[in-house]
User: Fold this.
Amino acid sequence: MWALVAVLVLKLFVTREIGRYSVVTGRRLLTGLAGLPGPRGWAIWVILVPQLVVGIAAIAGIASAAGSALALAVPGAIQLWTGVVIAAAAGLVLVGHYTGVEWVSRVLGVALALGAVVAAIQVGPDLTEAAAGFVPVPPDDLRVAEILPWLGFLSNGAAGLMWYSYWITAKGIGHAGVPAADRRDPRHLDSHQIDRVRGWLRTMTLDSTFAVVGVALITVAFLILGAELLRPEGIVPAEADVARDLTRLFSEVFGSVGFWLMVVGLVSAFWTATLTNIDGWQRLYTDGVRRVLPARLADHTLTRPAVISRTAIVLWLAILPYAVFLVFGNPVALLTLAGSIEAVHIPLVAGLVLWLNRRTMPRALRAGRAATALVVAAVVFFTWFALYYLWQQFTG
Assistant:
């Protein structure tokens, strides 16, 4: 439990730094990273290459989890429904109109979250055991390989953290809502303009904090349900049975109604995750590829943003993930791979954005000492887990 709290708090402050850059400058994160000192585009390469692997593995894992949930309710193999989920999600991202679908999915997601909280309360956790979990002491039999993916994906992975920059610029928050021609260098703002930017930053902080609190409540609820209902029977959700195992969390509390609520909730949650992940990664890939292209190719027909985006959606985020799933066929293993890479990637992203903000912002708009210390702590925390994971892998 202590690791849960640490991860959520540390990721919140990394998210704030990413949001800070876009709110203050009005630009996307990769725009700033492309201008860091050193060989041209080096920071973009270290961001882009790992995420090319993560995107394939994560979408394959998430979509196949949705497929396993659909296979519980509708006749058909998980391979069929996984293909349907990926094709439908990719199709909607290509079209670009899916507000209604997102709204329905959010409603179902809220219902699932409320159901999890109510079920956790009814089950009644062992408060003594739960309290002991908040003591920051690693267990003697700690196997980092088992928790590293969870640390990577909880709340947001490295990619999800970076997508926050795209969300802010798309919504026009802060200087992102000011026409590019009218934006001023943040280092040359007067006191009135600085106060205005601080107001935007407070709003951004409040928004991201509420999101983290919501994630914490839902995560704790599912941890309680897993500990009280699945652990006594030795059940660990795995492979293609992940959805079937998870439905037991609700069916043992609410009966058949709980079973169907969980099935619908899982389909909705994994479907929405597939949709938003395809959308997020195609934005990251398009932006990243455009920034590492040689100048002579920038105006070529095949390197236009729309062409790169469609290619990324169809080939890299639909066809390849489905092919990977058909070969490996294990949602949990695919998500484990993606989550592990995300966890290792987070300290790099955190360090880069902290460096970027200190280079581009006046002291009045930078993170304070406490916030800076927490971002540095995030770098140390995730780096330690990554190194410990490698040590365990090599030493057995």
Remarks:
- The chain has a mean pLDDT of 85.
- The chain has 14 helices and no strands.
- The longest helix spans residues 191-230.
